[in-house]
Amino acid sequence: MSASEFDYLIVGQGIAGSCLAWELWRRGKSFLLADPCPFVTTSKVAAGLMTPVTGQRLVPSWRFLEFRNVALPFYREIEKVTGRGCCREFTMLRLFQSEREQNLFAKKREELKSYVSPSSSRLEIDSDKLNAPWGGFEMPLAGQLQTVPFLEATRDFFLKQERYRELSLDMEQDFDLSSADKVYVAKLDSTFGRIVCCQGVKGIETEGVNNLPWKPAKGEILTLHIPGLQEERVVNSGVWLVPLGEDRYRVGSTYEWQNLDQEVTEAGRDEIVRRLQSFLKLPFMVIDQQAAVRPGLEDQKPVAGSFPDEPRLAILNGLGSKGALMAPWLVQQLVDHLEFGTGMDPEVNFATRLNKSLKKTDC
Question: Which InterPro entries does this one have (predicted)?
Answer without folding.
Answer: FAD-dep_OxRdtase, FAD/NAD-bd_sf
